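User: Run a structure prediction on this.
Assistant: Running it now.
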Amino acid sequence: MGVGLLFACGKPAPPATSTPPETSAATSSSPAPKHHLLELDATGTATLSLTFTLDGKVSEEKAVKPPWRKTVTVPYGTGRHEWGLTMRYNGGTLSATGTVDGKLVTQTAGAGSPGSTNTADLTGSFTD
C-alpha cells in the first residue's frame, strides 16, 4: 500500500473580476396616444333610462341602477365634439356630473315623488 503526496507548483490564478453586463431599460420612442377623456357619472336611488349622444351617434340604456359611469376617449386633433346625456326616471333621487379631461363641465341633481316622470340633462362640448 502506498501513500502518495501531490504538490502543485506555480503561481496562483489571479482573482476573477467580473464586469456587470450592460443593462438598458426598454424605452419607447413614441409617446402614448393622446386623447380627451369624457366621463359621465350618475348616483342616487332612481332607476334610469339613459340616452347618450356624442357627435350625433346615439346609444341607449334602460333600467339602469346607479351608480353608473360611462368613460369615452376621443383622439386629440379631431375638432369640436358635442355630447349629451338625457336621464329619465320615475321617482327617487339623482345626481350626475360630466367631466372632460378631469375638469367638471356640468352637473345636475333632482328628486321626484314615486310615480312622477322626471328628466335631467347633461350637455357639453370640447374642442382641440
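The chain has one domain: 35-127.
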